[in-house]
Design a protein that fits this description.
Immunoglobulin-like, 2 helices, 2 domains, about 45% strand, 7-stranded antiparallel sheet, elongated, alpha+beta, 10 strands
Amino acid sequence: MALPDHHQIRIHPVADLEQPPPEKGRQQLQIVPPKKKRYSCLCRWLCWSLSIILVLLIVVGAVVGILYLVFKPKIPAYSVDSLNISDLRLNFDMSLYARFDVKITAYNPNEKIGIYYEKGGVLSVWYTENKLCEGSLPAFYHGHRNKTALDVDLTGRTVYGSTLMAALVEQQRTGRIPLQLRAAAPVAVKLGKLKLKKVKILGECLLVVDSLTANNAISIKASNCKFKLKL
């Protein structure tokens, strides 16, 4: 039996809650490769640089060691043979004028190393912290196991010399006058036929003399000399 229209039941479809919503289009999953870190290249560069530096240091050290064993370098020896004063006086302007003559013996003990003494070497005489005079060292070649005598003429003028002269006269009464000789000479070392770059020989001699009277024999009572190379 048919039901009247107002008694008809409408059945609506029930949505499936478990069913996922429809997709408009399936998205493709893209795999992005990881970016290279910036410091990776820097690390490789640093490693290469340090390796090259280390190899160079090893090579240089080996060469220096071989040269040392082959040539066996030694520092030259120097001695002050005599010190003569030809003039030491006060001028009218109260400056102190000094003229010394110093004789030095230089000895090169090396068997395979020669030394070129270049121009520009200076020798000076000091009393306490006052420079009395200075002169130029001669330029020459110092051969293997060779002794060379040097005669150096030194002159100088010191302002306000009256005070310095009084101190020298007072010190002379004791018979022991301390003087200091300072030397600086540019040299070039010759290894076989190879001439190396210039270095400096720096020297200092502490002397004790009995007198500073001009034109008189002066006795050197004590002498202590030290020398070193400066690159």
